[in-house]
Amino acid sequence: MGRPSHSSTTASGSALEQAREAAGSSKDVEIAGGAATVRQYLGADQLDELVRRPTSRGDSHVITRSIDKHRGTVMPSRTRTGDEKPAYSYIERVMISHAHPAKLGCDLAGVALGIGLIWRHRPIPAGAAIFGLSFVGSYLVRDIDIDRYGQTNLGQWMLGQAKPLNLLVRTAGFSVLLVGLWLRSPHLSAAGILGIVLGRALSPYAGESHSL
Predict the structure, then answer these.
(1) pTM of whole model > 0.85?
(2) Residues 64, 114: one domain?
(3) Angle at 34 (CA atoms; ends 50, 78), nearest 5 degrees
(4) How confident is the model at residue 85 (pLDDT cuts 50, 70, 90)?
């Protein structure tokens, strides 16, 4: 049921040497880490095989750039498949689902209708449009392959938007925008739009903590 495992937090060269001594000459040594670890060991020409394994945060774009940069020093590269899939949180799954056209389209339509209704001082229909169409979009994509969409460029970008700070800033910005529209205030509306844009720009991609 599994293999012996040893971990080390020492410098890369020392850790690799310790692992080789523990494994002996007849066993392989596996190195797990993020994109920085990949760059370090690729640069030292210490990898015989590179395995890319998706994680809940997923920074495959960073790892891929490292692979491409050092392609000449790496032997076969493969991606883990089978049961090794990202363990996404609920919020992350919701954000990734926006990579599907049905979910994204419903949410955008709901926001557009809601903004127009708020401008006309009709808050109840506005709320129904925003949340109702969002629910419809979620229902339409309830059975999609989240793991597959999570590996797309849009899915990776959406995953980066699932962080608490992003959600907080965007929610605050959208609230200020609605208040500005209700009061017909250009300054508040502009501040709300700025908050939404800032929230989106805080983390354009998922974090750099991918495991190999």
Answers:
(1) no
(2) no
(3) 20
(4) low
Q: Do 203 and 177 meet the contact criterion of CB atoms below 8 Å apart? A: no
64 and 97, same domain (yes or no):
no
Residue 207 lies in a domain: no
Looking at the domain assignment, is residue 2 inside a domain?
Answer: no
Residue pair 170/91 in contact by the 8 Å Cβ criterion:
no
Between CA 198 and CA 206 the distance in angstroms is: 16
In a domain, 26, yes or no: yes
Query: What is the extent of the structural domain holding 26?
Result: 12-79
Is 208 inside any structural domain? no
Q: How far apart are CA 35 and CA 23, in angstroms?
A: 24
- CB proximity list for 122: less than 8 A, separation 6 or greater: none
Contact 106, 137 (CB under 8 A): yes
More confident residue, 203 or 163: 163
